[in-house]
């Protein structure tokens, strides 16, 4: 979790407009030490982190979230029951990623949804366990040209294209949107047939791969919460599942 805290600290400082040297001086630490804290090369002491955040001028809510994460930094796994830490953790993992892989078995990923599809979801009372955070969606990926930015790979279950729950025109518009987005440089979108992976067989998850093409973290949806896993065994298991899902990709994805 250290890299997520480091990314958040740097982002908050840069957003505040305060230089690294100025914050370090106010906190009574060297610029080199603060730089290490912002890159994740140094462990975040809770007291120093709180002081740095106070110097930057963050809200009490943001400070509490980051301090709580710092207290759990040595644990390989973290469960976020209400989505309070999701943006911080996902953003931090994305920073280290060469590829962000998302499996969405029954719904189109939030960041790729058309306005009418999003409205249709809001108007129904059906449970949607694979609703992802808006922060994951690569709105920036739609304009990225820098190849150092991660590739976002979306695999979508065929169930998402069903008209059983959504009007035909809504689904058609959504599919047209995806067909357009899938042509963009930093986004890849593909469909997995229900015959290959039926709904309920594999829960929604997001896998993060670093620049050595090695998976290092996974986010798994559990009801309204998300489990963020970095233990080696779990990450390897989900990496294998991701490869298996890729093997089932439909060649002509959009019906």
UniProtKB/TrEMBL annotation:
Q: Name one Pfam family in it.
A: HTH_31
Q: Domain HTH cro/C1-type: where?
A: 9-63
Task: Give the transmembrane region(s).
Answer: none
What InterPro entries does this protein's entry cite?
Cro/C1-type_HTH, DUF5753, Lambda_DNA-bd_dom_sf
What's the domain of life for this entry?
Bacteria
Name this polypeptide is given: Scr1 family TA system antitoxin-like transcriptional regulator
């Amino acid at each position: 979790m250290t890299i997520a805290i480091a990314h958040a600290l740097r982002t908050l400082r840069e957003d505040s407009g305060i230089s690294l040297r100025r914050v370090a001086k106010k906190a009574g630490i060297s610029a080199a030490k603060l730089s290490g804290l912002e890159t994740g090369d140094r462990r975040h002491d809770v007291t120093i982190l709180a002081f740095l955040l106070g110097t930057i001028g963050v809200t009490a809510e943001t400070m509490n979230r980051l301090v709580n994460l710092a207290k759990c930094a040595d644990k390989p796994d973290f469960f976020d029951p209400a989505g309070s830490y999701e943006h911080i953790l996902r953003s931090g993992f994305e920073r280290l990623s060469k590829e962000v892989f998302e499996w969405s078995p029954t719904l189109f990923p939030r960041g790729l949804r058309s306005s009418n599809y999003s409205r249709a979801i809001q108007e129904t009372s059906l449970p949607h366990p694979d609703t992802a955070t808006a922060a994951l969606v690569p709105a920036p990926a739609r304009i990225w040209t820098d190849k150092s930015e991660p590739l976002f790979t979306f695999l979508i279950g065929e169930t998402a294209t069903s008209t059983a729950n959504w009007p035909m025109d809504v689904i058609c518009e959504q599919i047209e949107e995806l067909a357009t987005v899938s042509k963009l440089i930093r986004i890849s979108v593909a469909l997995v047939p229900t015959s290959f992976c039926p709904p309920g067989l594999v829960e929604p998850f997001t896998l993060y791969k670093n620049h050595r093409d090695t998976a290092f973290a996974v986010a798994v949806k559990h009801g309204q919460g998300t489990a963020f896993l970095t233990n080696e065994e779990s990450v390897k298991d989900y990496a294998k599942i991701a490869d298996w899902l890729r093997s089932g990709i439909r060649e002509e994805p959009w019906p």
